[in-house]
Design brief:
Elements (H helix, E strand, L loop, with lengths): L16 E3 L20 E3 L8 H8 L4 E2 L8 E2 L2 H7 L5 E2 L8 E2 L2 H12 L1 E6 L4 E7 L2 E2 L8 E2 L2 H12 L4 E2 L8 E2 L2 H12 L4 E2 L8 E2 L2 H12 L4 E2 L8 E2 L2 H12 L4 E2 L8 E2 L2 H12 L4 E2 L8 E2 L2 H12 L4 E2 L8 E2 L2 H11 L2
Antiparallel strand pairs: 1-2, 3-4, 5-6, 7-8, 9-10, 11-12, 13-14, 15-16, 17-18, 19-20, 21-22
């Protein structure tokens, strides 16, 4: 019998060792097996690995948009699916012009013109069956049709102005025509924001699903609302923004200041609210910088002032070979005009 001792491997040798454990018996098997009794397998080094395997591993799957004049590339399928909404389909019915993101959405939209609703009941084996909408709105100039009487009842409140749902929060008293709108409003009191943006490095949260949908257009660049005014090709991500823009063409100013001896009128409700603060002297926005505490009547003015402390300059000159940056957008625009002189 040989007296030679079995040569034990160095400590560094175990860096390339993989312990193989029988998964059917669970992790408890590790307690009854010593380190030298375990099955040891050497990890393959890079030079031992097949070159074709490395090429497959390093290759990244990309999603390319095949729409004409686009060809954008996305690393994930989620980002690609969200981007496809930019390339919408326009309804061909006369006087409609509704824009949808896919063919299925177009089919759903066409039911409005046909006054029918498609029913698919898998349990009962009913497919592609059409059911009419018997309840019609008799308000002058409306004519919308609905499948259920309750849906028609909610629709009629848009004409009558009825608001049966009250907010019970102290010192609020707002009223709403639909229960869903009341629930969304109550989140402004509770601070609940159940809808989160899943875009990379964003994570913003919102109290309404519609607000999240509009926010996603910031990432995708989708602007489904076009200005139909002649010689105007502007597009907008929100319908409200389009309505406000249309007033720049029509000159409409529906919001009037009710302050004594002031008859100014405005095209946007937000502009009217900001204007009223010039009468009341209200300054509800304070600078949060330590030791400052300045107050402002406009949130935009407060943000611009805050950049004096932080040194942030988010607006960059778009002219080639010019790297100047500015803290205010109006200063950036004035600077760009100096290049055109």
């Amino acid at each position: 019998m040989s007296n030679e001792k079995e040569e034990k491997p160095d400590k560094t040798h175990f860096d390339n060792i993989v312990d193989v454990v029988n998964p059917s018996k669970g992790d408890k098997i590790r307690d009854n097996i010593t380190l030298y009794q375990r099955l040891r397998v050497r990890k393959p080094k890079t030079q031992d690995t097949d070159a074709s395997y490395l090429e497959i591993k390093e290759e990244k799957k990309e999603f390319i948009c095949n729409e004409p004049n686009c060809k954008r590339v996305f690393p994930t399928s989620r980002g690609f699916n969200v981007h496809k909404r930019v390339h919408y389909i326009v309804c061909g019915e006369a006087g409609c012009g509704k824009k949808v993101t896919n063919k299925m959405g177009l089919q759903r939209h066409m039911r409005i013109h046909n006054n029918v609703k498609k029913v698919i009941n898998v349990k009962k084996g009913i497919y592609n069956m059409e059911r009419p909408r018997p309840y019609k709105c008799d308000w002058p100039g409306c004519g919308s049709r609905f499948e259920k009487r309750y849906t028609l009842k909610m629709h009629m409140r848009t004409h009558t102005g009825e608001k049966p749902y009250d907010c019970n929060w102290p010192n609020c008293g707002k009223k709403f025509s639909q229960l869903y709108n009341l629930k969304c409003h109550e989140r402004t009191h509770t601070g609940e924001k159940p809808y989160q943006c899943n875009w990379e490095q964003c994570g913003k949260r919102f109290s309404q699903k519609h607000t999240l949908t509009v926010h996603m257009r910031i990432h995708t660049g989708e602007k489904p609302y076009d200005c139909n005014w002649s010689d105007c090709e502007k597009k907008f991500a929100r319908l409200y923004s389009l309505k406000c823009h249309m007033r720049t063409h029509t000159g409409e100013r529906p919001y009037k200041c009710d302050w004594v001896h002031c008859n100014k009128m405005f095209s946007q409700l937000y502009t009217l609210k900001c204007h009223k603060r010039t009468h009341s002297g209200e300054k509800s926005y304070s600078c949060k910088w330590l030791g400052c505490g300045k107050q402002f009547s406009h949130l935009s003015n407060c943000k611009v002032h805050y950049r004096l402390h932080t040194g942030e300059k988010p607006y960059k000159c778009t002219i080639k070979n010019c790297s100047k940056r500015f803290s205010r957008v109006d200063l950036c625009k004035s600077h760009i005009k100096t290049h055109c002189l």
